[in-house]
Structure formats: C-alpha cells, structure tokens
Structure prediction request, 173 residues.
Amino acid sequence: MKTTPLTCVFALGLAVSASGYAAEQSIDNCIAAIQKQKTGEFIKLEKLDVAGKTFYEFEIRDPQGIEWEFMCDAKTGKITETESEVSSVDNEAFKKNAKVAEKEAIATALKAHPGTVQEVEYEIEDNGDASYEFDIINDKGVETKVEVSAATGKIIEVSTEEWEIGEEADEKR
Prediction:
C-alpha cells in the first residue's frame, strides 16, 4: 500500500470525522504543528479517547525511514507528545533505559486491560525514556492502547481507539 503525504491527512480526517469546522481547524492546526517539527509521509491517523479527552495520533515516516508518532489535542490543535519508534528491544536507544522485559510489561498491561495483544511498538519518548505500547483488543472488540514504561514497568498512558485511517506499518505480535 502506498503511503499518502501528510498534507492529505486533512481530507482523510474530514471524511471520517463529522464534527465539522472545529475538527477541520484542529486537524489543520495539528498538521501545521507537526510539519514544523518533522517532514515525512503520512502512515496512519487515529482518533483516541484519553481519560475523556479527544486526541489525534498522527504517525509519519521521515525521509530516513524512522517512524514518529505525534499526539495532538483535538480541541486545541496543539502537539502534546512526540515519540519515535524503534524496531526492537535490541535498539541501543531502547536498551539503554529498559529494565523491564517485554513479557513483564505485557503481563502488567493485560492485568489492567484484559484481552489479546494485537500489536507491540517500542517507543522512545522525547526525553529518551523507552516504553512499550500494546494494542489490546478486549472481548467486545474495543482496542485499548496501553503504554508501559520500560524502565519502571508502570502504566504511563491508556487510550481507547475511536477510529483509524492508514496502515499498520510493521505489526509485531
């Protein structure tokens, strides 16, 4: 599947979101903020609920092939979090801060949010911290993203996916 340029996210977001002008402005503001930080190709856009607040998560691939995730507040259009993805726990940036094994992190995530792990991502936060992000599907078919610190083993973020546009890059199970 060919990726779509990031600037096309606006049209895709509007096709799925029926929330009108406010959504148009916040998505547009998100795209502008992302383009100030990073250039690349659009891979995926997700609408997430994080503790009752709506966020868009944009995933792009930069010219060097590195995947980046940007969390953007759907109300304000401001970037709240930037992470890069690495291919495995053996990546130096991930390994240097990881003290918790993937199996332990999965057990923690599943204890809090029972279901089936559909995808695992290995992420590096803005401050260099490593984390695991698990996409868990429960018995009702709801997808919950659970992010677990690779240093402490504690859950650091939970969100529920409302919808997704784009492709799953290198899905790991």
Summary: The two ends are 21 Å apart (CA to CA). Residues 87-160 form a domain with the Nuclear Transport Factor 2; Chain: A, fold (CATH 3.10.450.40).
